[in-house]
Amino acid sequence: MASVEDIGIDLGSSNVIIAERGKGVVLSEPAVLAVNHDTRNIISIGTEAYQMWGRQPSGVAMVRPLQKGSIQDFDMLSIMLNYFVMRVVGKHLFNRPRALMSVSATSNEIEKRQLILRMLEAGARRTQLIERPLAAALGAGVPINDVTGRMVVDIGGATTDIAVISSGEIMARSILGTAGDTFTDELIRYVRLKHNLLIGWRTAEDLKSAIGTADIQEQNTLSLPAAGRNLVSGLPRQADITSLECAEAAEEPLHALIEGLHSVIERIPAELANDVFDDGILLTGGGARLRSLREVIQREMQIPVFVAEHPQDCIALGCALVLERPSEYARVLGESRRGR
Ligand SMILES: Nc1ncnc2c1ncn2[C@@H]1O[C@H](COP(=O)(O)OP(=O)(O)OP(=O)(O)O)[C@@H](O)[C@H]1O
Ligand SMILES: [Mg+2]
């Protein structure tokens, strides 16, 4: 009988990603639920719900249980987590996997304990938590147990987690509220001010992923029509949005990111800072997929910058790796448990 291996879970504000030990990513879905506004009955979860986003009938609310780095709706978060985990492990109730999960850095003790309980109900035998930067680094292939200082920057939807890691420990860390969602919000604001056009979140996300860029100096300009509502007439209208406009909209969040990186580097001992200057900065998370982000940060900071191969999957993959080699990474788990 096929059995489910231990699982690593990245419970993010935009996406939930689950990786199985030795198999890689087995589930990747948007962290969203479509819910009946009045009864709170769940209509759909994940990809199915995301497809409705912006087109949902009146009376249906789209709920993102994690937002702005904190848990907005604990009940919905538990239902969503339970549903995803059951999908992966549900058919193997006699072979309950262990789980390692990375949750938002700002969730509190009670919330963490309840999430662990939910995992138990969903079929996990035992659930441990891990700090996000450690999982992100491991998933990107960084040998975190080295003494060399490594800077890892996970740019998610709601938060950017900046950390310098050495000897398996987080030596310096800063969590910014500027991340992928900020770029989307700024694009919506920009289009509203410049074109008098109110575009929806989905439209802005699609624009950002298709033509968005961080580089204001980019030579080739791309453009895409975006549909929204004219703020003067109130009627539906389309406007062509260019990649240069996306870059202009991205300027402020980009600036905040670079400042955040500077402030962490300024705080670490000179030896670690030297390591970072030599080895560079590693970007993970979906936000790292913004075109030219790597190049712009490198140009501004004069430090080499790399993007992990599958930036959005790194945390889940890192969790799965720890489960694969528990003795090598016992310290990572020990640290995170003691820290809580
Ligand atoms: N091709 C792309 N270009 C630009 N941004 C992208 C691209 N693909 C994904 N993103 C952005 O990545 C972000 C989501 O990344 P990720 O899945 O790592 O977040 P998360 O882990 O769910 O959030 P968090 O870590 O903050 O809780 C979103 O803001 C999304 O718009
Ligand atoms: Mg994340």
Explain what this protein looks like in three dimensions.
Strands 3-2-1-9-10 form a five-stranded mixed β-sheet, with helices on both faces. The longest helix is centred in the C-terminal third of the chain and has 17 residues, at 251-267. The chain has helices at residues 47-52, 74-89, 109-122, 132-139, 180-195, 201-211, 243-249, 251-267, 270-279, 293-301, 314-324, 330-339, and strands at 7-11, 15-20, 24-30, 33-36, 42-45, 60-63, 66-67, 70-71, 98-102, 126-129, 150-155, 160-166, 169-176, 197-198, 223-230, 236-242, 281-284, 305-307. By secondary structure, the chain is of the alpha+beta class. Strand 4 (33-36) and strand 5 (42-45) form a beta hairpin. The chain folds into three domains: 7-133 and 315-339, 2-Layer Sandwich (Nucleotidyltransferase, domain 5), CATH 3.30.420.40; 146-178 and 254-311, ATPase, nucleotide binding domain (Nucleotidyltransferase, domain 5, 2-Layer Sandwich); 180-249, ATPase, substrate binding domain, subdomain 4 (Actin, Chain A, domain 4, Alpha-Beta Complex). Helix content is 40%, strand content 26%. Residues 10, 12-15, 31, 66, 104, 156-159, 179-181, 184, 205, 208-209, 212, 285-287, 289-290, 312 line the site of adenosine-5'-triphosphate (ATP). Magnesium ion binds next to loops.
Record the SSE blueprint:
Layout: E1 7-11, E2 15-20, E3 24-30, E4 33-36, E5 42-45, H1 47-52, E6 60-63, E7 66-67, E8 70-71, H2 74-89, E9 98-102, H3 109-122, E10 126-129, H4 132-139, E11 150-155, E12 160-166, E13 169-176, H5 180-195, E14 197-198, H6 201-211, E15 223-230, E16 236-242, H7 243-249, H8 251-267, H9 270-279, E17 281-284, H10 293-301, E18 305-307, H11 314-324, H12 330-339
Parallel strand pairs: 1-9, 9-10, 11-17, 17-18
Antiparallel strand pairs: 1-2, 2-3, 4-5, 4-6, 7-8, 11-12, 12-13, 14-15, 15-16
Helix pairs in contact: 2-3, 4-11, 5-6, 5-7
The structure holds adenosine-5'-triphosphate and magnesium ion.
